[in-house]
Amino acid sequence: MADLFRQDLVALVPRLRRFAYGLTGNRQDGDDLVQAACEKALRNAAQFQPGTRMDSWMYRIIQTLWIDDRRRHMRHGPAIDPADVDLSDEGKAASLPEDRMMLARTRAAMATLPEPQRAVLALVAIEGLSYREAAETLDIPVGTVMSRLSRAREALLPKLGLSQGPRQ
Amino acid sequence: MTAPKAMDRARLAAFVDGELSPEDSAAVVMHLADHPADQAYVDDLFAANAALARAFAAPLSEPVPPAIQALLAEPAPSAAILPFPPARGRLRPALAGGLGLAAGLALALYLVQPAPPATLAVGPLDAASPLATALEGLPSGATLATTSGPEAVILSTLPTATGHCREVESLDRAARRIDLALACRLPQGGWQIEMVLAETLPGDSTTEPGFAAAEGTALQDFSAYLDRRGAGLALSPEEEAALIARGWAE
Q1: pTM
Q2: pLDDT tens digits along A23-46
């Protein structure tokens, strides 16, 4: 049982790192967060209910630790990777290949979102959770998931050059 | 032309996110065929989802960092290698290095005392005792050495629902014993040890700097106790220093 728990956790690590990267906007912070979350999970393995989704359980631990860390350090935004800074500036970004520029711009845009919106967007759009699973992971109503998603996308799409603005 | 009939954006998003039933999805597909603006919005959402997935995909194709690998490695059958101190402060790099780093940074302040601090027993501490003095004024990483073997280390300072507590570990190499204690500051001042857990070092233990081999079960109990008590993550050195400087006032 204990070995299985560890094995399942190991298998999840790549996705946990992706989620934490999306949340923190920074590889190192993301990995620190995943490490802290794994430590917490190992300490609290007895609280995990076999048969329930370990990924949601871990996403929740990561998100809680991140909120806690943010609150403690009064950070007002994620520390985004230096390479992604200022990529909303067409001039500075012009030297990058189009594809890389798009991805860097996506990371920079994600970093500008309020924390709760970023968490929902990362869970749904990147990790592929359903609205209900995201709601359970974040312990919020499904309606809140939908409204946060909606606001996140309203802010994100124009920054990605994808939307011509409100159409409704 | 399509504006009056435009579909609710939440519904379009639900379609893109795979939230709709096959029947409802089919209805959206039919709708999109006649509503280019909504189709464009759906295309944008798909493109944004794809961009997000790719923008943060790097960890999926990279090896897991060694620190996380080591953490998740299968424990030896009889003895887990436990970080020393417990790494509640992993997000605080200055603490994350563990005891070895803390000592290396000359944080280890030695108080030589005549009696061993094996007095890690539950109950209030005499305010004049070396341990109470250390808890009140020394940073985490401080070591209380004794003339006769056991050494105690203040591992961390943790906020809890009812005030601050500090993790203290006493290592008696001769007796192959580690005591892990939680000392909490009382509202009226002074310190009280709330719990002590003992670990027995394996017989063939080769204790490396920064790590102590222990059975691990007591550590799990300790963590469970901390969680029940509502303990948060360890304070950063700066936060801890500020707290000590203002006499543990909130």
Answers
A1: 0.55
A2: 999 999 999 999 999 999 999 988
Answer for the pair B213, B207: CB distance below 8 angstroms, yes or no. Answer: yes
Q: Which sequence spans correspond to the domains of chain B? A: 3-58, 75-245
Q: Which domains does chain A have, with CATH numbers?
A: 1-79 (1.10.1740.10)
Helical (H) or strand (E) element with B83: strand B80-83
- Chain B residue with CA closest to A37: the answer is B90
Predicted pLDDT at B74: 67
Please name the member of A69, A126, A157 whose beta carbon is closest to the beta carbon of B91.
Answer: A69
- Return d(Cα B40, Cα B36) in angstroms, integer: 6
How many CB atoms are located within 10 Å of the residue B235 CB? 25
Contact A162 B48 (CB under 8 A): yes
Residue appearing with tokens 């909606």: A150
Tell me whether residues A35 and B44 touch, CB distance under 8 A.
Answer: no
Residues in A touching B49 (Cβ below 8 Å): 125-126
Chain A nearest-CA distance from B196, in A, is 17
**Three-class DSSP labels, A95-159:** CCCHHHHHHHHHHHHHHHCCHHHHHHHHHHHHCCCCHHHHHHHHCCCHHHHHHHHHHHHHHHHHH
CB–CB of A17 and B47 under 8 A? no
The tokens for B106 are 């000359």
Contact: A146, B9; criterion CB under 8 Å: no
Which residues in B lie closer than 8 A to residue A133 (C-beta atoms)? none
pLDDT in tens, B25-82: 999 999 999 999 999 999 999 999 999 999 999 999 888 888 998 888 866 443 333 3
Instruction: Residue B99: name the closest of B220, B207, B238, B216 by CA.
Output: B207
Among A126, A107, A119, A109, CA closest to A145: A119
Across the A/B interface, how many CB contacts are shorter than 8 Å? 145
